[in-house]
Amino acid sequence: MATILQKMVTRGFHGTFFIRKRMKLRIWNLIALSLMAAFAASVRAEDFHFRHEHVLGTSLHLAISCDNQAQASTIEQRVLQEIDRLNSVLSRWDEHSEFTAWQAGPKSSISRDLATVLKRADDWRSATSLAFDVRAEAVSQLWKNAARQGHAPSDPQRQQLAIQLRTAPYAFKQDGTVQRSDKLPISLDGLAKGYILDQVCELVQREYPDTNDFLINIGGDLRKLGDQPLEVAIENPSNTSEGAKPLQTFIVSQPIAMATSGNYRRFLNVGDRRVSHIVDPRTCLPAELTCSVTVVSASAIDADALATSVSVLGPEEGLALIERLDNTECCVVNASGEIVTSSGWPLGAIQANTRQLVAKEDEPQPEYGLFVDFTIQRAGGGRYRRPYVAMWLEDAEGFPVRTEILWLQKEQPGPRWHRDLTRWYRNDRLRRSVEDLDLIETISGATRGPGEYKAHFDGTDNLDLPLAKGKYTLCLEVAREHGTYQLIRETIQWGDKPIAEKKLKGNVEVGAMSYRFVPQPSTDKVAQ
């Protein structure tokens, strides 16, 4: 079979990924797809994709290359069991987890999993000269508490905490116990997810050795097994709209781990100042030398820890650390938008086809068009199937001139659930009869975890032609398996007059929605 490459876009702190297949014209910039990666087709195996929400508080995507659906489903269930097992050990959100009990109680013996993560955290604390510390949560809480009062923490408060953080957080005893040194809160969020990815991959290799290729993506942290090619792209932090051009792409044809950390999606408002949610435990100040950091490494736990560490250390000191490490590369977008990379980026001595797509000065934040913000509600309970979402513009005759977002599930051998998006599907059948462009057959992905999303309509239609001035209807359609169906429609005037931000009423699936319109400058050519 012919090789099919697909594209993965890393997201900020949670590192969410978007996948877009190559399409005719600019269709990859048409559809925003999340938490999706794929492998090439194989003459000996099929590719099976599984997606779940509310896994470690985010979204999970598995891509499994094996002989049949039954085997893939067995692997999927075994992976979910392992994730649950490790979450019961490492989670700080589970009051019954082993980590929670250890943090709250006296010194005690701990499991191999918890001991391994604590030891690796201690290793990185030493290797980064205290820039990585599992007690950074104490600094975050200090800033959050002060922010509620409208100001930054005082210098004496910061200095006192910084002095406490100079001592080791815990000590490993000869009897196998790990004794805490203080009562400051500890969080393993900086590397626990990476450890879980590594352990899942070890399980697949050990229990299912005939699996050709395997990929696991949890909230943007990634581990890939096998040699089938995968095209990876890094999100441009200066333009985070769904479907925006990525910062850089490269093709991966070997096992890797990758993690991204950034401050452009999560931040803290302190008075009239916006500060990074990533903090420096050495100074107890926000880490603001970088905007985005992506690390490629042999293990996910190290990529996870290093993405945070380089964010704290900054480009110069952080990349100097990367250069001292084997099998590790890094791409940094500094605070001014400049891209700086390690000498072997992205894949060291392994040749990679790398393309620089955009830089901050090349593609600034879009200045005109229709800007839409919306949130997807989180379903109650535990794991659940994600909702399917479409956002598009209809002209006065109801013809879908531009689809900006399409989040579906696609199961082998063909798409599924697109008919649940009843209005989009009806209109798409009409559109296909005119444009002869099959959107469904060229996509393979699904929405990322519930949260805040942005969309941008730039003034062109599905065929990349300028939209005529006039009335259009903005449509957002959401369907959830075993859940509800919702449709929001809003008439807008695409013309020369701006539209101030307008908030729309949400529903059980869409928590909030707003839009604003900025007309294209009159000096530019617009279809009449």
Automatic annotation (TrEMBL):
Source species taxonomy: Bacteria, Pseudomonadati, Planctomycetota, Planctomycetia, Pirellulales
InterPro entries: ApbE (IPR024932), ApbE-like_sf (IPR003374), DUF2271 (IPR014469)
Cofactor or coenzyme needed: Mg(2+)
Protein name as catalogued: FAD:protein FMN transferase
Reaction catalysed by this enzyme: L-threonyl-[protein] + FAD = FMN-L-threonyl-[protein] + AMP + H(+)
Organism: Blastopirellula marina
Record bears the keyword Flavoprotein: yes
Keywords, ordered alphabetically: FAD, Flavoprotein, Magnesium, Metal-binding, Transferase
Enzyme class: transferase
Enzyme Commission (EC) number: 2.7.1.180
GO molecular function ontology, one term from the record: transferase activity
Origin: domain of life: Bacteria
